[in-house]
Amino acid sequence: MPESDPIAERSVAMQRSPEFQRLRRTFMTFILPMTIVFLAWYLAYVLIAGFAPDFFAIRIGGSNINLGLLFGLGQFVTTFAITMLYSRWANRTYDPIAEPLAHEMERAEAAR
Predict the structure, then answer these.
(1) 38 to each of 24, 32, 50, 79, how far by Cα in Å?
(2) Three-point CA angle 106, 32, 51, nearest 5°
(3) 102 lies in a domain?
(4) How many domains are contained in the chain?
(5) 59 three-state secondary structure
(6) Domain of 103?
(7) pTM, to two decimals
């Protein structure tokens, strides 16, 4: 009969705990909406480029800058903005909830 692994058992127990479930819910309340917003924004960019290229060809102020270039640059700006928002959110909201769980797992590992 194989030996039981106390760390594995503790991990499974932690995943079932209300604290861990709260951590997962907290994570999903940020990640899911951000993912949907970004994917919708990216899909709009791709669809407009594919089906309305004349829209992206509109020049801004008579210069060589057009809407397609601005939308493309907007994709980069959006990526960096979401990254900064996530970092700030994680430091303020997610990490304080995750830290006690991480310490608990570290204590279980050290006791092993």
Answers:
(1) 21, 10, 18, 8
(2) 140
(3) yes
(4) 1
(5) strand
(6) 24-111
(7) 0.78
